[in-house]
Amino acid sequence: MPMHGTHLWRKHPGVRSGDQLSAGERAADHLKAAFGSWAFLIVLNTFIVAWIAANILLPHATRWDVYPFILLNLGLSWLAAQQGGALQIAANRGDRINSEVALHTQANSDTLLELNQRQMEILGRLDGLDGKIADLASAVQVVMAARAEHESAVSADAKAARNAAESAFVATQALAAVATGPQPALPAATAAPAAPAKRLATGAERGKGSTP
After folding, report:
1. Host domain of residue 128
2. How many domains does the chain have?
3. pLDDT value of position 53
4. What is the model's pTM?
């Protein structure tokens, strides 16, 4: 479990962590987390107060560091020297972490810049396609107008041809009716000679009847 907020860098994808770190780097991380925490300050101050109180309140024979607490000053001086080195190690470790973060950020920036350039190229190509699409739309409109005009002309020609065919058909029917119609009646003067023949025939029949 992280002891300090500085451990949040372990979640950064561009920073090495875990088994990727050496033993010295892991120790530096622990020192940085330990010396830079409230727990360290509380423990250190509690220890100093207890040391001073014990060497004041205990009987003189049992005191191990009487005033002016030379042994305590020596320990604090040693701790300050060690802490200075430990903090410098932790600072170097922090610089390495910052460098890894910066390199990762630079790589991301380069990737984003490349993507931006590709996007601009695509947009430029799309602008060119817009002009071509507009030209193609104009050409399609011209073709559609010519096609509509051609279809209307063809429709008019077909209508005229149909009318002509219907007229020819009507004329043909009229000529056929005239050609196959009834013959005209003969004049009355032509049919008159048939009457005397009938009368002659009647007289002959009468003569045959009167013969014994």
Report:
1. 5-138
2. 1
3. 93
4. 0.40
